[in-house]
Amino acid sequence: MQPIIEPMDERDLETVARLRLAAFFEGTGRTVEEDAAGLRKLVIGDGFEAALVVRDDGLPVGTCLLVRHELEPAHALTPWLAGLVVDTEHRGRGIGTALVRATEAHAASAGVETLYLYTWEARDFYAALGWTEVEMFEQDGATMLLMSRRFSL
């Protein structure tokens, strides 16, 4: 499957929220409705922030976001690549890489010089894509890694 990246739209919200809950928010009490509401704000936003998806047979199987704020108040940096997730059955096909590259391209086209992200488990994945380690820190009892990617404008 050659990943085709598209902007998220209203029909994607529930499915993407379920993907995100399973990947990032299990056991937190966050609901599908709460996550979908946050995604909806990105979908109808000002065009700077972005919510991208890859669909298979019309259903989203992966997503990645460009957001102004992430993990408050750990760092006052902006903007952020956030929420990269690919459905487990669709991993290993280049979807994650394609989503990261599309998010980077959107950020660069909007004039972003440096993009940031938080990760721990995926640090090798992002390093292979040219992201640089900035700082390790603790957030809610977990080790996190702040990474950045600079663009030449």
Proper CATH architecture: 3-Layer(aba) Sandwich
Number of individual domains: 1
The CATH topology = Aminopeptidase
Walk across the major sheet and give the strand order.
Answer: 1-2-3-4
Q: List how many beta strands DSSP finds.
A: 7
Q: Strand content of the residues, in percent? A: 25-35%
List the total number of helices. 4
| CATH class assignment | Alpha Beta
Q: Gap between N and C termini, in Å?
A: 31 Å
Can you walk me through this structure?
- Residues 3-152 form the N-acetyltransferase domain.
- This is GNAT family N-acetyltransferase.
- InterPro entries: Acyl_CoA_acyltransferase, Bact_Acetyltransf, GNAT_dom.
- It holds the Pfam family Acetyltransf_7.
- With 153 residues, the chain is an alpha+beta fold.
- The chain has helices at residues 13-25, 32-43, 95-109, 123-128, and strands at 5-7, 50-56, 59-67, 80-86, 114-119, 132-139, 142-150.
- The chain has a single domain (5-112), classed as Aminopeptidase, CATH 3.40.630.30.
- Helices cover 30% and strands 32% of the residues.
- Helix 1 (13-25) packs across helix 2 (32-43).
- It starts with a strand and ends with a strand.
- The model has no long low-confidence stretch (mean pLDDT 92).
